[in-house]
Amino acid sequence: MGLAFLIVTLALLPAQDGLLLARMLSVPVEAGRALQFEDAAGSHRLLIWKKLLRLIPHFWAFGVGPDHLIYGQLALPDGSIVDKAHNIFLEIAVTMGVFALASYLAFLCFILRPPRSEAGFAPFVMVLVYRCRGCSTLTWW
Q1: pTM of this structure
Q2: CA atoms within 13 A on the CB side of 117
Q3: pLDDT digits (tens, 9 = 90+) for 7-53
Q4: How far apart are CA 64 and CA 49, in angstroms?
Q5: What is the structure's pLDDT at 86?
Q6: What pLDDT is stored for residue 42 in this prediction?
Q7: Cβ partners under 8 Å of residue 131, min gap 6
Q8: Which of 11, 25, 50, 112 has its CA at a distance of 20 to 30 angstroms from the CA of residue 88?
Q9: d(CA 119, CA 84)
Q10: Long-range contacts from 72-77, C-beta under 8 angstroms, 24+ separation
């Protein structure tokens, strides 16, 4: 399986003028930006997160509404309006409020406890993998 992924990746490297290779080579640069807390890091994700943190006190109880982040009127330097947080915890806190965030965290604590039987192992692994993917806070692709 790993060999198949390697072959496919090598075949796709020159596609679209080397976009995949350019994205792969940009990871160290973006990681350096993130470590220095530059606003442009990760396609302006740090800037988005800073602006979202300022919205939480204004909409702390029930948020701006599910899938209504666009109404927060957060603009990036290029003038585009932010419509997603790129961080599930901030997304929930701003769009649905701290009560929903507390419920989500309680659910994760409940489901991520070690499984007590074989039947509980599959949901545990599914949620764990989902959260590991969601916790990679700076995704550049």
Answers
A1: 0.62
A2: 2
A3: 888 887 777 777 777 777 777 777 777 777 776 676 777 778 888 88
A4: 16
A5: 78
A6: 66
A7: 108, 112
A8: 25
A9: 35
A10: 74/48, 76/44, 76/47, 76/48, 77/44, 77/47
Residue 12's CB is within 10 A of a number of other CB atoms, namely: 13
Q: Evaluate if residue 63 carries a pLDDT over 70.
A: yes
The phi, psi pair for 81, rounded to 5°, reads: -90, 135
Tens-digit pLDDT profile for residues 109-138: 777 777 677 777 777 777 777 767 655 444
CA torsion, points 77, 141, 39, 88, in degrees to nearest 10? 100
For 14-60, what is the HEC assignment? CHHHHHHHHHHHHHHHHHHHHHCCCCCHHHHHHHHHHHHHHHCCCCC
Give exposure, 76-86, as e/b (b: 16+ Cβ within 10 Å).
eeeeeebeebb
User: How far apart (Å, rounded) are the C-alpha atoms in residues 96 and 28?
Assistant: 34
- Between CA 14 and CA 71 the distance in angstroms is 40
